Structure formats: C-alpha cells, structure tokens
C-alpha cells in the first residue's frame, strides 16, 4: 500500500518538474533514456529509485498513477510518456525535441 504522502510527492514531481524521469542507476534502458534526453537538455529531474529509501514505494505510486511498473518512467510537461521504447519512438518520429523544448 502506498502512503498518501508518497503518492502526493510523486504527483507534485510530475506537476512541477518539466521533465521527470523515475530511473534506476543500473538499468540499461534507463541509461538509454537519460542519454537521449540529456542530449537535448540537462534540465531533466532524474530520481534514481535504487538510491533512495522510499524508492520502492515511489515505484508503487507510479504504478498506481500510470499503470506502468517498469523504469524508466518518463513525464514531460506533466504528461506520461512511458518508458525507453516510448522515448525512442518519439525521437525517431522527430517529436522528442519539440516536446522537451515546449516543456522548458
């Protein structure tokens, strides 16, 4: 069960950070997403769930909010983008740059 405090924290991050990435430091898909986004901007807010005490609960809150259990879990301008394959698909369609620039 996710506490309302943690769920509120996650919802605030989604609302207030132009680019929010829930990640794990050892995850190759997370690294690919971070590299792709950081090639466009260094302004992404990245939360490494494996490096913080409430990371597992934050991941559960993200599951409740988005229906996505896996990382990376990416939000741009408060909109849930999805995971690495979704980010790479936006890049391939030449839509990622515009989406990020509009958020900043």
Automatic annotation (TrEMBL):
Q: Which Gene3D superfamilies match?
A: Glutaredoxin
Please name the GO terms that the record assigns under molecular function.
glutathione disulfide oxidoreductase activity; glutathione peroxidase activity; glutathione transferase activity
GO CC annotations on file: cytoplasm; nucleus
Q: Where is the signal peptide?
A: none
Q: Name one GO biological process term.
A: cellular response to oxidative stress
| The entry's keywords | Disulfide bond, Electron transport, Redox-active center, Transferase, Transport
Q: Which residues form the Glutaredoxin domain?
A: 19-81
Catalytic activity entry: RX + glutathione = an S-substituted glutathione + a halide anion + H(+); 1-chloro-2,4-dinitrobenzene + glutathione = 2,4-dinitrophenyl-S-glutathione + chloride + H(+); 2 glutathione + H2O2 = glutathione disulfide + 2 H2O
Q: Which domain of life is it from?
A: Eukaryota
| InterPro entries in the cross-refs | GLR_AS (IPR011767), Glutaredoxin (IPR002109), Glutaredoxin_euk/vir (IPR011899), Glutaredoxin_subgr (IPR014025), Thioredoxin-like_sf (IPR036249)
Which named protein is this?
Putative stress-induced cytoplasmic glutaredoxin thioltransferase
- Give the source lineage, highest ranks first: Eukaryota, Fungi, Dikarya, Ascomycota, Saccharomycotina
């Amino acid at each position: 069960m996710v506490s309302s405090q943690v769920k509120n924290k996650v919802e605030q991050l989604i609302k207030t950070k132009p680019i929010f990435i829930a990640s794990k430091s050892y995850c190759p898909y997370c690294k690919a997403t971070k590299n792709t986004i950081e090639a466009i901007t260094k302004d992404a807010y990245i939360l490494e769930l494996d490096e913080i005490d409430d990371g597992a609960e934050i991941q559960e809150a993200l599951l409740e909010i988005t229906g996505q259990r896996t990382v990376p879990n990416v939000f741009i301008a408060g909109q849930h983008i999805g995971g690495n394959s979704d980010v790479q698909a936006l890049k391939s369609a030449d839509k990622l740059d515009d989406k990020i620039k509009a958020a900043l």
